[in-house]
Amino acid sequence: MNLYPIAKLHAKEINLQKQLQMERDSYNEYEYYYNHIIKIVESWLEILSIDEKELLIMKIYQKQSYSCIASSLGYVSHSSVLRKYKKIIKKISNI
After folding, report:
1. Can you tell me the distance from the alpha carbon of 55 to that of 42, in angstroms, rounded to the nearest whole number?
2. pLDDT for 10-34, tens place per residue?
3. Which of 51, 68, 83, 85 is most buried when burial is the number of CB atoms within 10 A of its CB?
């Protein structure tokens, strides 16, 4: 009976350490996953020209319309930007 409070305290500490370890393991899985995505995207960006990167940034990150991109980058029309965008996507999907 005398060991009961000590055993409870140590069991609680062990459970807490297990929880922390599980959180670290989970964090490591996410870290691996995100680093993998970063490597893939960086490999795509290495093969793109500056204007292709700029078009992707405007479309994907800034969420601009094709018409807006066309006027900003000096394309004739939104369909020109759309064709260029599709070529870029095809180019990176072949890696």
Report:
1. 16
2. 888 888 888 888 877 777 777 888 8
3. 85
- 3-class secondary-structure state, position 75: coil
Kindly report, residue by residue over 34-81, the tens digit of the pLDDT: 888 999 989 999 999 999 999 999 999 899 999 999 999 999 999 999
Find tokens 């993998």 and name the residue: 36
Q: Select from 29, 48, 46 the least CA-distant residue to 91.
A: 48
d(CA 44, CA 92): 6
DSSP 48: S
3-state secondary structure 56-83: HHHHHHCCCCHHHHHHHHCCCCHHHHHH
Structure-block tokens of residue 19: 């929880």
The answer to whether the predicted template modeling score (pTM) of the entire model surpasses 0.85 is: no
Closest CA to 56 of 71, 39, 38, 44: 44
